[in-house]
Every structure is written in C-alpha cells, then in structure tokens.
Amino acid sequence: MSAKTPGKGRRPYEKRRRAEQEQATRERITAAAVELHGTVGPAATTVSEVAKLAGVQRATVYRHFPDADDLFEACSSHWADAHPPPDMAPLAEIEDPRTRLAAALAGLYAYYRENETMLSNVFRDMPRLPGLAAATARRRAGFEALEQLLGHGWEGGDPELRAAAISLALDYRAWELLVRERGLDDAGAAALMVAAATCAGR
Asked: For residue 26, what pLDDT band results from cuts at 50, 70 and 90?
C-alpha cells in the first residue's frame, strides 16, 4: 500500500474553505453597501465607507466588485431577496378588474410604505447613476406580467390609455407623489388610481 502524500488530503478542504471565506466576504461587502444605500443613498455611498462598514480594505472591495455596476446589481439582488414584493398570484382569481386593481394596489402600496426609505433613495439617485438605473429597470421588468393581468377584463374606454393608467398606478413615484406630496393615505391613493383606470379614454 502506497503512503499518502503529506498534505494532499487537506488541499480540497483548504480550497473549499478559502472559497467559503471569499463568499462570506463578498456577502459582507454587499450587505454593507445595501445598508449605506438605505441610509445615505447610493450616490453618497463611497467605496471607503463600504470597506469600513464591511471590515475590509478598499482593495478587497475592488477585488470582488471591480465595477460599480457589479456592486449595484449585487445590492439590488440582495435587497430584493430580503424584501420580496407581495405575492400577486391570487389576483388572477379576482374576476372584476376594478376589484383586482384595488387589491393589487393595496398590497403594493403597503410594500412601498414599508420600504419607503430605500426606494426613495434609489429613485432619487437613479439619474446620477446609470448602473443603478439599469439594475432597477431589470427588476421593474417583472411588472409587465402584472400590468397584463390587471389590464384584463375591462370594458369600454381606450385600452392604451387604461394600460398607461395602470402602469402609472403601479409606479412607486406615483405613490410617493400622492401620499407624501398630496397627503393622501394609501387607500385614498389606490382609490384615485382605480378611478383613473376606470375613466381612461372615456
């Protein structure tokens, strides 16, 4: 029987251990960036502050995220996993389109209120950060199926105008305008947007 080469059996373990440590460091950096995005905002978040909060060197941040867009995408995925939007699948069982839209907005507006600080920071800073805008647009693409569901079953009016009204109703910035600037509560904002969709094109 041949003798084992000294240390040979440890190499896979050490390699796996290093990979786990690297993944943990990457996740710590991502979490630090997300926390800063939710406090000072993406535009004011610096690599130095991310490194400090994550307990690593600046070079370590750049090693894991050489490009700011990579960090924005990682942050977007991390935050979305921790704050999933409300489940809209049950809406398909609601036949009346007005009731269906009202139910969708009730869930969505509650979600917006719960996550208002982060969402406000992101939308405020998007014009200054193309990478952030791209990452957000990819997440927003998931609304297309919801818009189609909410646009089904209406009678009369202009379908294109109604689709535009529904798209506007789902937009965070519409909620922010109606609630924070115009002083409506969530229910009032939802009722107004349902009325707008109902009257679209008439």
From this structure: very high
d(CA 100, CA 93): 9
Domain 10-82 fold is Tetracycline Repressor; domain 2 (1.10.357)
State which amino acid sits at residue 106: A
**Which residue ranges make up each domain of the chain?**
10-82, 89-199
Question: Whose CA is closest to 186, among 102, 96, 88?
Answer: 102
How far CA 120 is from CA of 3, 56, 94, 171, in Å, comes to 64, 28, 31, 12
Residues 6+ apart with CB under 8 A from 194: 98, 101, 102, 105, 169
Predicted local confidence at residue 9, as pLDDT: 58
pLDDT digits (tens, 9 = 90+) for 181-198: 999 999 999 999 999 999
